């Protein structure tokens, strides 16, 4: 199949291309001289207008424009040095050009307006402060020396410093697993953040934790036909990859583990699912009490028995009743 005429020039050999030179431009119209052209040279230029005259020296022209000769000489010499440096830096060959380009990519930009002022010996910030010009963004007023000294003496708390470090861990005594927490997500960034949060929460709650351990990914694929009958081959494929991490708690008290899981559930991060397997270990004495009839208010057979008895003692005390006299809970008010 032949290429279109507009694209043939791009596919033919380079030696067959014709280099066209631009045609010279000739002015197609003539401008007649104004009748007042003879009087243009006789126009009087008022002094102090900033328009230099042809018969004035450089000093007189600078004085007429209100420019100090010393500043003009400083700027002129700075510009001459910059031009000379640019001429020396100008590459002569293609290899030099590539070398200059690699150097430019690794070097900072020194051709900004601020650098040009600095090369000329002008400090814009200092000059703005001298003339009372407010710097964009403003500056905070300096504190008195005593307040600044007190602020410098304040030490950053250890838990704030630990945010920038890896999570701290506690060493287990017997390495008996009591909880396996599995985190699942489709976004690895959310899961890594929440796993770090869970490890720090376990440390501050006194739980020895191991992990997060990467688990194999779960890859699921589906093929859905887009239409029926003769369009059976027109199918669409879908894929879902589930990433997982495992955090194991060892030698932890069951009540503390439940509090840890409740804390994580309260502050659960979006896009991250949790699945926990909890084990509780009982003594042999508890096995002999299996099948014993439990009476209402009898907590001796439960692990939380001493704590529940203490709660009943507080709730039944005289001081608590006097303090809660006349108070109605939301449930009582609703009823």
Automatic annotation (TrEMBL):
Pfam family, any one: Ribosomal_S10
Name the Gene3D superfamilies on file.
Ribosomal protein S10 domain (3.30.70.600)
The cellular component terms of Gene Ontology attached to this UniProt record, alphabetical and capped at eight, are:
ribonucleoprotein complex; ribosome
- Annotated Small ribosomal subunit protein uS10 domain ranges read 180-277
Keywords, A to Z, come to: Ribonucleoprotein, Ribosomal protein
Annotated region described as Disordered, given as residue ranges: 19-55
Which GO molecular-function terms appear in the entry? structural constituent of ribosome
**Which GO biological process categories is it annotated with?**
translation
Q: Which family does it belong to?
A: Belongs to the universal ribosomal protein uS10 family.
Q: What is this protein called?
A: Small ribosomal subunit protein uS10m
Look up and give the organism this protein is from.
Zopfia rhizophila CBS 207.26
Q: What is the lineage of its organism?
A: Eukaryota, Fungi, Dikarya, Ascomycota, Pezizomycotina
